[in-house]
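User: I've been going back and forth on whether these two constructs are worth ordering. Before I decide, could you fold them both?

Assistant: Sure. I'll take them in the order you sent them. The first construct and its structure tokens:
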Amino acid sequence: MSEENKHHATAAAILPLVGGAANVTSVAHCMTRLRLGLRDRALVRDEQLKALQAVLGVVEDDTYQIVLGPGTVARVTPEFEALVEAENARSAPASPAPADPDRGSGTGTAEALAAQGAALKAERKAKNSTPFKLFLRRIANIFVPLIPALIGCGIIAGLNGLLVNLHWLPGVTPALAAMASGFMALIAVFVGYNTAKEFGGTPILGGAVASVIVYAGVADVEAFGRHLSPGQGGVLGALGAAWLGVYVEKWCRRRVPESVDVLVTPTVTVLVAGLATLFGLMFLAGEVSTLIGDAADWLLSHGGAGAGFLLGGLFLPLVMLGLHQALIPIHTTLIEGAGFTVLLPILAMAGAGQVGAAIAIYYRLSRNTSIRATIKSALWPGFLGVGEPLIYGVSLPLGRPFITACTGGAFGGAFVGLFNQLGTDVGSTAIGPSGWALFPLLDGNHGLGRTVAVYAAGLLVGYVAGFLATYYFGFTRTMLTELDAAPDSPADGDVAPGERVAEKV
């Protein structure tokens, strides 16, 4: 089967399992997930969906998210959108597929853990629906669409740096530098565009207001007794400028007569928000951006291993609480200022701890073929930084192994943080990838070779620490007795092992 047919087949298999086109209200994707807005969540057949070969897991948040992995999701999404449009365009569209009455009735341990994982996700979704966390989610929606460009330009920047250091292709490296830097030079415009779109304004007006920040002529403008610099304030200034532009635009829409709205509203929006940006937001956002960069440098130069331990160990709990989205503009600000973010490689160690924990679970539960099969299918995506199948399908429902996995991430983060404290910065030129997928995006202050070596060693520390912590401390004797058995023959009685684990942990 060709690649195109394979992705079409995946989309065609997913559509009826989410209730058909009539049940789909929106379609989008990020780095690894197909994100669907659904009319009726009850129509989704979770277990059949998870059983699809291309599906690495599902995550339920404000949208229903199907984990397909990097690369695959970008190819499946347009196929899925085309199928939805085609089905909706029919004169008599098919009714949403009925809910599968047998859904979630499996009795094997993996099925029980999957059910517990779904319950934990539903509970987390309810807890995360606070105004503050919903606001953070909207901020994340502004930056997530920028990730593919950040990755592409970041890899080109890394390749260009390698060629420059080796004195190869001197006629090509200036062109590569232009391609790598062009997007970052105008990233404020894209942030402004997405901000206006997210908060209900006209996207192009948001981009127009934010473009003031990167215009070379701002060097002639003086604010707070200082001349401004092109790009001052960066993405934070663009975010604030576009949000202000949305507020002004909505104010004008409510008051300006329709006959002159097309002339007055855009003009007033750009004028008011632009002046506020030039004579206030650029300076203030520039100060905040500088503070963020200085804080990150201070944290790792003074905290080092301790800071890395906390960041690596607490990142997954932050994800569970929905607070990790607050880090996205921080990463972007660091990349814009220094060329890379020193925080992402440390946070990536959390995934290494999960991988090490999963390997330990695989060996500890040598007779549980169900959980072992789940781990075998989810382990390689975990190495590549796609951790949801391992988290929601294995470690989180078990309880203790999730904690020991976080311990592995903490030790990996401490290792990388220690080298930052010793003067070797390990950074990433883009956000999104993790695990092995982060290698092409690595950058630092002491050459690519040392940066790659430190990051690889950090991953190894995370794998080993996660494995050892889980192997020796991840299970009580009762858990081992109940879980280390074939799924069709639980240790005591007819209760599925995974169900009793929820009571014990």
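The second construct, handled the same way:
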Amino acid sequence: MVRLMGRSGERSPRRPSGPLARYRRDADRPRRGEDRGRRRAAALRSALSGRSVAAQVFAMNVVIVLLLVVAAAVALVLQGRHDSEVEARNRSVSVAATFANSPGVPEALRAPDPTAILQPRAEATREATGVDFVVVMNTDGIRYTHPRPDRIGKQFVGDIAPALAGETVTEEIEGTIGPLVQAVVPVKAADGTVVGLVSAGITTENVGGVADRQLPLVLTAAAAGLALATGGTALVSRRLLRQTHGLGPHEMTRMYEHHDAVLHSVREGVLIVGGEGQLLLANDEAQRLLDLPPDAEGRHVLRLGLPDDTAELLASGRVATDEVHLVKDRLLAVNQRPTDVRGGPAGSVATLRDSTELRALSGRADTARERLDILYAAGVAIGTSLDVGRTAEELAELAVPRFADYVSVDLFDTVLAGGQPEGVTPLRRTALSGVREEVPLYPVGRQLRFVASSPQGRSLDTGRPVLEPRLGEAAGWQAQDLERSAQVVEYGVHSLITVPLRAGSLMLGVVSFWRSEKAEPFDEDELALAEELVARAAVSIDNARRYTREHSMAVTLQRSLLPRRMPDQNALDVAYRYLPAQAGVGGDWFDVLPLSGARVALVVGDVVGHGLHAAATMGRLRTAVHNFASLDLPPDELLGLLDELVNRIDQDEAADDSSAPVTGATCLYAIYDPVSSTCVMARAGHPPPALIRPDGGVEFPEVPAGPPLGLGGLPFETTELRLAEGSRLVLYTDGLVEDREHDIDVGLEHLRQALETAGESPEETCRTVLDARLPDRPGDDIALLVARTRALGPDRVAEWQVPNDPAAVGEVRAEVTRRLADWGLDELAFTTELILSELVTNAIRYGGETVQVRVLHDRSLICEVFDSSSTSPHLRYAAMTDEGGRGLFLVAQLAERWGTRYTPAGKVIWAEQPVP
């Protein structure tokens, strides 16, 4: 067993000596300097567990000191309380005797009112001496004085018999003011007789107050003594703990027995260098790695034959972390830390680790990690948009310069348009990225046809990647373009990988990776990486192609559902714009519908959402508006029918799980009459129209905002505006005035500002508005319709009131014939007379008392007959034996169009004839 060093410094004769002993004495603690905190914590836990000598000594000393301190404190407290009680008895006797022997007290006791004389003196004495009461009483024990006046005149509490006998009495009793210590002294007359008694006393609370006030001081002194004793004991125990490291004798013996085995069997070299640079210890692994001589320990590290950089590091003692040093044929990772931290001995500890094989593995791991990073970046950076060209550019930009110096992406033309390549179709260079811009490769946009012997041609034919490590020797590649191939090789491009872009069985194009900056050619591992990279990009390119195809189909459908040209009419000068959203087609639409009587209907609507469903729904609603408009319905009734239609669409599609209901639709319907220059309009949840007056002023007319289409049950209201000729009515969808950043009120104000600066024509108005309000990437469709009003002059309108008499039909025909002659329409006189004869005759016969005829000369000749009846005539085919029923049939044959519209006062039957 190893013996510990005693206080006399004597050592066991069995204690080892030499460098290892010096290491044990001086270097064991610094060698593990960075673990000192953990060792101290472990040692403290060991010490507290009671296993070590230091712990036992510390515990014993603390217990003894604690007992001594507690005993001393208790003794001091008890002594203080005893002294306080003795002091209280002495003070009570002194005060009572002094007051009893004071002049005038016997005379006051014989006075008629002793209390009046003695009470002030007693209270003054009590306050001056610090006692709790001074009581003067007669020989019967009746009080004359007391601190509490209500106690005067009552019997004194205590033993007064000895005092009546002339003795002094001290006692502890339960008085009227609580437990107390009191003294009773007799008051004697000049002849020695007892004429009264005086008692003075202190309550128990005040008796112990002195001791209690001394108690904190006693406890503080006890705590200070305990702290000093414990601190001294702790210092002694800490010193002993540091010497033994918190270990018991058996543990210390076991540690030293295994010390050498552990130190010399680890697979890491350990060197201990002293403050002067001498090598104190080198384990077996360090001797092997550094090839040290047998007598290395004790010699200076600069004279051990080590490489200069390694020797200088060991001699300097500076901190080093994983510094790589070449020692002969080994790469050693050196870590070094000083041992003089926190009072340790001067010197340093160095560990050596052979990292030759680890470096080779690390290089391969770095390469694999870089390739994984490229593939991860491809998953994040490629396919951020659904644009085929942009996706190809993302692939080229990602691979340069991380994988190749130049990357070109060639796609079939049909792929760029969203289709599938069929047969032999040309490719087009879609993307090209490189470390420099002047490389002599085919530029972007160039149409290409690769020969079969080229790497690109072979990749397209076989569907497999091709590696050309040396382009200068590749005859098949040079056959593509001899002149350009020579320029590419002369530029420095020397290696090529081509990978086909495939999505399943569909060939989309080919990707070429070119190398010029790095001297080594591409290898098989890089070929596999290129194939994986292109495979990931192919998925994104194919998704973009599919989206392009679907988007093109949706746009085609939407364009087919929108008006391709404006109808011919003279009431309005119209210009329009339609801009689809970047996210896809939507459900915005507009229409200009000629009506009877030279009137024109303006329609703007919006179906919420995007995609084919929104476009198809828009087509259905637009068709419905056309059909309802042909009935010459007022705006509020037309919107009511449209609302019912949307409800039916929702009900039909709710029963079909594969269809989605209409999530919302809005519409504004306006009818302009050029004869009266009035415009009647109603809106269903749509933004209000804007009106530009002829003087350039802009306003938003108050049109009641009805509910969006599909809610049902709520009526729509109409508004009638009188428009001066040359006014411009601006209808639009919410994509023009709403976005995610601004409220519609802000958008309307911006629209007002744009309209105030617009030109006079509708075309200029459209252009100005879009220049001011069109965002870079509109998130919603925008439909804009601008209509400038025209008026049909009085010289083009003729009206007659017809008496309710069949004979008046002839006069009407004559008036109409004269007016047609004035308009130069003599050719239409005969047919017009026939039409009016039938219409007026029917109106007189069936239509009521009021009949009116109006003829309009517009793009066509329009004859209108007003009557007060709401009964609609029907076209029927009369039999050979029928006497009537052929009038409307005749009108239908002579007129180009005819029909009926209802008014609040009745109906109008009209017929149009083309003007020659």
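Notes on the second construct follow. Residues 246 and 898 are 117 Å apart (CA to CA). DSSP finds 24 helices and 31 strands in the chain.
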